[in-house]
Amino acid sequence: MIKYNALINGIGTSVKTKKYYDEWSKDYDKVLNQWNYHAPKSSSKILKKFLNKNPNEILDLACGTGLFGKELKKIYPKSSIDGADISTKSLSHAKLKKVYKRLFVSDFNKNFIFKKKYNLITCIGSLTYNNNPQKLLLKVSNITKKSGFFIFSHRVDLWQKQNFDKILSDLSNKWQNIFISRKLLYLPKNKDFNNKIKIKIGLLKKI
Ligand SMILES: C[S@@+](CC[C@H](N)C(=O)[O-])C[C@H]1O[C@@H](n2cnc3c(N)ncnc32)[C@H](O)[C@@H]1O
User: Fold this and answer.
1) Could you read off the pLDDT of 100-116 as tens digits, one per residue?
2) How far apart, in Å, do the first and last CA atoms of the chain sit?
3) How far apart are the C-alpha atoms of 87 and 45, rounded to whole Å?
4) How far is the CA of 1 from the centre of ligand 1 (A)?
5) What number does CATH give the domain 4-206?
6) How many angstroms does the Cα of residue 16 sit away from the middle of ligand 1?
7) Could you give the CA distance from residue 41 to residue 142 in angstroms, rounded to a whole number?
């Protein structure tokens, strides 16, 4: 039985998080739909507005069961999309969606295993589990092609706690800030999150 109230405070170690998402994977899409999770659709609207050219190569970091991959395929049908996640069972569900070219088991808190550079990297609904956002932004920058993009969502409470504005300004030699959304509801129909926890969606361009 999945304890959903663990989500608001974080699940714990990478091992625990993997186990949690493995167990949740078969019902994840249904439950997120019930909670009115809109970050994938809102993020794809932002991409459509600022990045209307098909990016050749996309990496969906912490792709889970592929909810965002599905949206990416709708707006960029010709792109080659890879996905990565720590949860192997979520990746098997992602595979069934037939939107990803390659799927990697990968922990984004460790060194990246990716061998090539991408035109667009995405990380939606997952930064909560990252233990060092500055390091992650640097690692993502290393595998993003010049003038490529990174789109992410991040909880506003963690944004403030981590002083995320300063992290972005410290990395202004790597990333140009293209768009930061207003505060948006995250999981409006989840009783722990409802109108208390909000997110912002950011789009950065590699310098
Ligand atoms: C809320 S889900 C979001 C999944 C997908 N991006 C979406 O929008 O539906 C968070 C995802 O982060 C993944 N995750 C958590 N910790 C991770 C880590 N250390 N490395 C890679 N993925 C991780 C989980 O397995 C889960 O699939």
Assistant:
1) 999 999 999 999 999 99
2) 45
3) 27
4) 19
5) 3.40.50.150
6) 12
7) 27
